[in-house]
Automatic annotation (TrEMBL):
<keyword id="KW-0046">Antibiotic resistance</keyword>
<keyword id="KW-0812">Transmembrane</keyword>
<dbReference type="InterPro" id="IPR051784">
    <property type="entry name" value="Nod_factor_ABC_transporter"/>
</dbReference>
<dbReference type="Pfam" id="PF01061">
    <property type="entry name" value="ABC2_membrane"/>
</dbReference>
<feature type="transmembrane region" description="Helical">
    <location>
        <begin position="223"/>
        <end position="242"/>
    </location>
</feature>
<keyword id="KW-1003">Cell membrane</keyword>
<dbReference type="InterPro" id="IPR000412">
    <property type="entry name" value="ABC_2_transport"/>
</dbReference>
<comment type="similarity">
    <text>Belongs to the ABC-2 integral membrane protein family.</text>
</comment>
<feature type="domain" description="ABC transmembrane type-2">
    <location>
        <begin position="20"/>
        <end position="248"/>
    </location>
</feature>
<dbReference type="InterPro" id="IPR013525">
    <property type="entry name" value="ABC2_TM"/>
</dbReference>
<feature type="transmembrane region" description="Helical">
    <location>
        <begin position="137"/>
        <end position="159"/>
    </location>
</feature>
<dbReference type="InterPro" id="IPR047817">
    <property type="entry name" value="ABC2_TM_bact-type"/>
</dbReference>
<keyword id="KW-0472">Membrane</keyword>
<feature type="transmembrane region" description="Helical">
    <location>
        <begin position="21"/>
        <end position="40"/>
    </location>
</feature>
<protein>
    <recommendedName>
        <fullName>Transport permease protein</fullName>
    </recommendedName>
</protein>
<keyword id="KW-1133">Transmembrane helix</keyword>
<feature type="transmembrane region" description="Helical">
    <location>
        <begin position="60"/>
        <end position="80"/>
    </location>
</feature>
Amino acid sequence: MSAYTALTAAGYRAQVRDKTTVFFTFAFPLIFLVVFGLIFRGRNVEQSGFSYLSYTASGVLSWGVANAAVFGIGFTLMQWRADDILRMIRMSPAPLSAVIWSRYVLALGVGFVQSVLFVGVAMLPGFGLVPSSRWPLLIPVMVLGITTFLLLGVIIGSIADTPESVAGIANFLMLPMAFLSGSFFPLDAMPDWLQKISLVMPLRYLNDAVSAALTGRGDLSDIGVGCAGLVVFAVIFGAVAARTFRWTKSS
């Protein structure tokens, strides 16, 4: 418990002291919300009849939370391994679970703050988001989403040895996923073949579940399917992460 507490506290201090990280974690997704909100204000998606805001608000929120989880743990594991911090932790009584759980708690905290801040801004008069009555279901959806993408970040942080490689691999996965999973552009307006491709991307399931819970664009079955998809990807990513994790650059 003492190791877990120390690692959590150290991670928190590193998180709040790095102004660049704070900006890209909290302010950067809001910039997308403001831009898309102003461009598509008052417009609906012809194929569904729902407003663009109901798509972009939930989609950008999902992407922002997922991005923070992936990059946060990815850069941390890479840097701790490069600085031999992981090797020292391995030599100490602290278990690997303390390392992962400390980052997990931080990721959940960051995701909670992101969600509250993002939804609060989206509800301002200029945007006018009206949360669905099912909005409390957003909490378990976000927990599943953060878990899934945190495990993806563990994989990236385990195979990458430099900040550039972490950023390159993470962006290679997250940016195309954002566009093809409906975070930046409504899936309903995409060709059928692109919608089918999106089914193999975990962000699609997070987007769908967040949208159904937050904006009511969907029903309980959409939330259930989204959560089930996230569980499947979490199991897959967890198995891969367990095999790829490295305490040092060589092992």
